[in-house]
Structure formats: C-alpha cells, structure tokens
Design a protein that fits this description.
Strand order of the largest sheet: 1-2
Order of helices and strands: HEHE
Shape: globular
Radius of gyration: 12 Å
Helix content: 25-40%
Largest sheet: 2 strands, parallel
Structural class: alpha+beta
Strand content: 15-25%
Number of helices: 2
Length: 68
C-alpha cells in the first residue's frame, strides 16, 4: 500500500487497510523492519475480531532490517 507503507495503530486501521480486499482469495505480504511481529499480531487480532476463518488467510511477513 503506497510507496513507504502505512501506519497501523489499531484494529480499525487494519479494517481500513484490508477493507474491500478479498482476503480469502489473495495473499498478503509485509516486508518491514525489526517490528515485523507487530503487524502480524494486528492481522491475527483483526481476523479474530471479525470472525474471519484462519484457514482462509494467507501471506508472509519478512523481517528485513537492512531495507531501512
């Protein structure tokens, strides 16, 4: 999403980010710095709060400290 990414501070931010994206048909990928586990946890919390089936969500998180 964008050239430098997006700020994710809440479940509502995840809802806005994922809104309109058919997550049961596409895979997401996050290449970020050392804070990699945070958006992964936010995605998991968003999924549970929306009762989105875990087996329908796919993607990767790459913790890349050198990209900065």
């Amino acid at each position: 999403m964008g050239k430098v990414g997006v700020a994710i501070s809440s479940i509502d931010d995840m809802e806005e980010l994922f809104g309109g994206i058919p997550l049961d048909r596409v895979s997401t990928s996050m290449t970020i710095n050392a804070t990699g586990p945070s958006p992964l946890l936010s995605t998991s919390r968003w999924r549970r709060s929306r009762a989105f089936p875990a087996d329908k969500l796919s993607g990767t998180t790459q913790n890349d400290i050198l990209k900065e």
